[in-house]
Design goal:
Layout: H1 2-6, E1 13-18, E2 23-33, E3 45-50, E4 56-61, E5 65-70, E6 75-82, E7 89-93, E8 96-100, E9 104-109, E10 115-121, E11 133-134, E12 140-146, E13 149-154, E14 165-166, E15 171-176, E16 182-187, E17 190-195, E18 201-207, E19 212-215, E20 220-228, E21 231-238, E22 246-251, E23 255-262, E24 266-272, E25 278-284, E26 292-293, E27 303-306, E28 312-316, E29 320-325, E30 333-336, E31 345-348, E32 353-357, E33 363-367, E34 373-377, E35 383-386, E36 389-393, E37 397-403
């Protein structure tokens, strides 16, 4: 039977951790096995994505196969889907999922697993595997029709919005703004902005690295420009005016690693000097000259997250994991890193916990308050979070766990 081949539900296997300020209960609720034949080099899940409500997921497996699953019923939806070995998978909305092949995106009914309509052009290449852009309301999809062109389509009608856009360099990313008003297209070293409703050009090309942030409520676009060897400039633009004119430009001590939105209309900028020394600044969106250095004794460039209460930030570098409170130079706590070096990635989990994954495929959960490890799992290639759930790609397939 299809269910027995792809699904092996597991119940009752739980791990509870009592801590001073929180209790986590992880319980494995489903085990979706790899549906492919094991004749290829790698096995198991390589990508997994939850639908927005967490009741369904789509997983891609090594061996060019994808599968939709019903998490509530613990069973696969429809038959396995043949897809590109490196293509991304995901959801357009609760009713439609997508798979990306080498030359197209296909849409799938999440109730039946059947394909919807004809494929939409979307070209992939091994060095530029990009996702289609999905409108926040799930009504539009933007694809890279060829390496140097994009299309925006209405999901329901397949009608193209505006005309195809052609660029002089390869398109490397597509992203709708959080308010759904604009599509941001990165082509080469330039950023282009398109009106999502009409398909008309709004502004561009804007010289920009990959780091940029759009703040719709404040009507500000923050971009990064290369100013010299190992040096970046920070540029602010007013998006309330035609063509989004530049309003501020300032130099930075090194290359920008990331931009983080903060409350009270601020942005935090992390830079790395040529000797890898990190620097942090908070900058008011409407007074960018008034930037404030964030004190820290963190060593070398690092990855960081800001806690959900926006009072602390946590960073991971090649030596340690540290937690800092804004306005204080000494860490709240500092721990030696697991044996993974600079390749570890850090992610927020909830108000009281965060995640670190490393290249050794270790997944660890830590407390924000004191940095103590509270749960760990091995054999994790990728993961996806939903409300109260987490799905892991493993060598065997995909595991779904509940979190309480």
């Amino acid at each position: 039977m299809l269910v027995s081949r792809f699904l092996m539900p597991v119940f009752g296997f739980a791990l509870s951790i009592s801590v001073a300020d929180a209790q986590l209960n992880f319980q494995r609720v489903a085990d979706f096995r790899d549906p492919t034949t094991h004749t290829h080099r790698f096995t198991g899940g390589r990508e997994v994505v939850f639908a927005e409500d967490g009741n369904k997921l789509i997983a891609a497996f090594y061996g060019s196969t994808a599968q939709l699953f019903d998490v509530k019923e613990n069973e696969p939806i429809g038959k396995p889907l043949r897809t590109a070995g490196d293509g991304e998978v995901g959801f357009v909305n609760l009713d439609i999922a997508y798979t990306a092949d080498w030359d197209s995106v296909r849409l799938w009914d999440t109730k039946s697993g059947q394909q919807i309509g004809e494929p939409i052009p979307h070209e992939l290449r091994e060095d530029t595997i990009i996702r289609p852009a999905i409108h926040p309301e799930g009504t539009l999809i933007a694809t890279r029709a060829s390496l140097r062109s994009i299309q925006i389509r209405d999901v329901a009608t397949r009608r193209m919005i505006g005309r195809p856009r052609n660029y002089s360099a390869d398109v490397v990313s597509l992203r709708f703004s959080e308010n759904g008003a604009f599509l941001f297209v990165k082509a080469g070293g330039s950023l282009h902005v398109i009106d999502a409703e009409t398909g008309d050009d709004v502004t561009g090309p804007i010289k920009s690295g990959r780091s940029f942030r759009f703040f719709p409520s404040q009507q500000v676009l923050v971009t990064i420009e290369q100013a010299g060897e190992g040096v970046h400039q920070l540029v602010f633009r007013d998006t309330s005016q035609t063509r989004w004119p530049e309003t501020h430009r300032s130099g930075l001590p090194g290359k920008v690693k990331r931009l983080v939105a903060l409350p009270n209309d601020r942005v935090m900028v992390q830079t790395s000097a040529p000797d890898f020394t990190p620097r942090l600044f908070t900058i008011p969106l409407h007074a960018p000259k008034n930037r404030v250095a964030v004190e820290s004794n963190a060593d070398r460039a690092f990855r960081l997250i800001v806690t959900q209460d926006n009072k602390r930030w946590i960073c991971s570098n090649i030596h340690d994991i540290s937690c800092y409170q804004f306005g204080q130079s000494d860490p709240v706590w500092q721990k030696a890193v697991p044996p993974s070096g600079y390749d570890q990635q850090i992610f927020p989990l909830n108000d009281e916990h965060f995640i670190i994954c490393n290249r050794e495929e270790d997944f660890r959960v830590y407390r924000v308050s004191d940095g103590e490890e509270v749960w760990a799992k091995t054999d994790v290639k990728r993961f996806s979070l939903a409300e109260g759930k987490i799905a892991f790609c493993t060598n065997a397939g995909v595991e779904v766990w509940s979190m309480e």
